Amino acid sequence: MAKTATAKDKTNAAAQALREQIGNGALGPGDWLPSETQLITQFGVSRYAARQAITRLVAEGLVTSVDGKGTYVRPRRERARHADTRTLTRAATPDGPRFADADTDGWEPVEGAATYRTNATEDLALALGVPEHTPVFAVDRLLSSGDRRMLHRLYVPMATAAQVPALETDPFRTPAEVYALLADAEITVTWTESVQATIPSPDDAASLHSTPGAAILITRRVATDPTGRPLAMEETRRSADSIQLVYRIVPADA
Asked: Domain spanning 2-73: which CATH class is it, in words?
């Protein structure tokens, strides 16, 4: 345990020292960081610890790693080039309330949607709020907007589909369709959203055409009924390079 703690401390110290050098300009935009061998000598860490320190800086968006060349400091930007609005709007119609996602404007499908049934993995179960191995229906869409790409995935638990006849007949819907069917079934829905930055899998990086070494942003919007039972979950994945997510805040009663 003592050795693990020491290695972790050295990794933290190396990462912090590099952050400070980037922050004070000692390492400027476009400058290459020391090689792994140089970091090992400079900070007295193992090769694994040196790689971990670099991985953290990549995840924080401070540096970019290029296979076979090394890692350089990313250019600073005053503002993100793209701002994606994350909110749902509600409109009253003769058929009842209908919901639309402000984030869908300008996004077009790259290819046909993939539909399938699966069982919730540990990660999906925790995010969705259902027991592991819960059967769910999923719809995957790859979307584009200009030179950007976004992976969108909708999960509908089988229990939700069984509660709404139209979903039981066809569970592979768009989010707007799912929310409309829930409203038609007189089910009150509330939404909770979370955002996580992470290093993409090779498949995600290829699909998103993301910058090598750049993190991606994962949003998860969970729809629940008044008892807190999960009804559906939307998940989006997009490159974190030069974008920001914008949220409209509606005050809630204390």
From this structure: mainly alpha
